[in-house]
Structure to design on (322 residues):
């Protein structure tokens, strides 16, 4: 079996093709001209083609040589760029993070100043995008996704629980007749298209019929749905993960305190298992654990203040219909 050319052979070939002579290539590579000539001769033998036309000291590429020059030049440029990137990674401390947009705006965003204050020598890049990271093609350390945890091939750690309940502004709620779930009759129900738990599921699980006189609004993002409720336009079915600060401040209030708050893991930190050795990943996961503990303490206070009852559900089974 013919031995495959080594990387040095391609490096020597690319340098000769680019510089035009063996002598100039040898000067750039800091080797002898005979070493360069030997590598080129060996490469031609192993590939079974002539790569150069020789006219005195000046060399010109054959058709096969031109094809190999284009391919080897591209490959070597990529290797040089990767090497430079590795050098910058060693010099700079940087965390590249992707996050679900609404979670990034309403939960993570207000807390990031604490991360920056604690780690002033680190650079931070946050990409808020609905699509998960392709870790093989993108430069990203960690992804925080909303879902039931049904991703394969990744390290997955639950980050924040969803605690879902109907919420409305005090002004909108005061204009509704009845008490508790009866207030939903005739109300405008606000849904988020990307939320795991939607009104149809919540009503069915609570044994409530969808009244003909109920009106609905479907927003693309939880951030938009919550803002609509804050503006007094209806009742939003949302999570304390995103609305805790508004509820604690009294800008939103529970509509059906007699009904259980549905709780389930909803936000997950994802990365390839090998990334767990990265310092940036370790640093961020340790920090976010502290933030989650503070958030959960705030949720406990809200639950106690409003006399709510929390019920754990199987999100992967019930919400996904599995």
């Amino acid at each position: 079996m013919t031995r495959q050319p080594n990387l040095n052979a391609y490096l020597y070939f690319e340098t000769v093709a680019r510089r035009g002579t063996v002598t100039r290539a040898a000067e750039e590579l800091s080797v002898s001209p005979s070493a360069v000539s030997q590598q080129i001769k060996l490469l031609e033998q192993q590939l079974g083609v002539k790569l150069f036309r020789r006219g005195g000291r000046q060399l010109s590429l054959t058709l096969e040589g031109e094809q190999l020059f284009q391919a080897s030049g591209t490959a070597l440029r990529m290797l040089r760029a990767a090497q430079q990137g590795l050098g910058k990674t060693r010099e700079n401390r940087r965390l590249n993070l992707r996050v679900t947009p609404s979670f990034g705006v309403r939960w993570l965003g207000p807390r990031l100043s604490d991360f920056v204050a604690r780690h002033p020598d680190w650079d931070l890049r946050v990409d808020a995008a609905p699509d998960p990271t392709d870790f093989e093609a993108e430069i990203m350390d960690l992804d925080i996704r909303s879902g039931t945890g049904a991703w394969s091939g990744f390290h997955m750690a639950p980050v924040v629980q969803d605690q879902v309940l109907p919420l409305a502004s005090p002004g909108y709620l005061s204009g509704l007749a009845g008490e508790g779930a009866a207030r939903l009759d005739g109300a405008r129900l606000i849904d988020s298209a990307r939320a795991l738990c939607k009104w149809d599921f919540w009503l069915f699980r609570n044994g409530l019929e969808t009244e003909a006189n109920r009106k609905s609004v479907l927003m693309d993002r939880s951030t938009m749905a919550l803002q609509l409720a804050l503006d007094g336009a209806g009742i939003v079915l949302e999570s304390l993960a995103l609305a805790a600060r508004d509820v604690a401040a009294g800008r939103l209030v529970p509509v059906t305190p007699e009904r259980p708050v549905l709780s389930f893991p909803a936000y997950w930190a994802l990365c390839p298992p090998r990334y767990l050795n990265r310092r940036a990943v370790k640093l961020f996961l340790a920090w976010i654990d502290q933030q989650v503990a503070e958030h959960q303490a705030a949720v406990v206070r809200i639950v106690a203040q409003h006399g709510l009852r929390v019920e754990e559900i199987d999100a992967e089974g019930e919400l996904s219909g599995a």
The chain has two domains: 7-91, 95-322. The chain is about 45% helix and 20% strand.
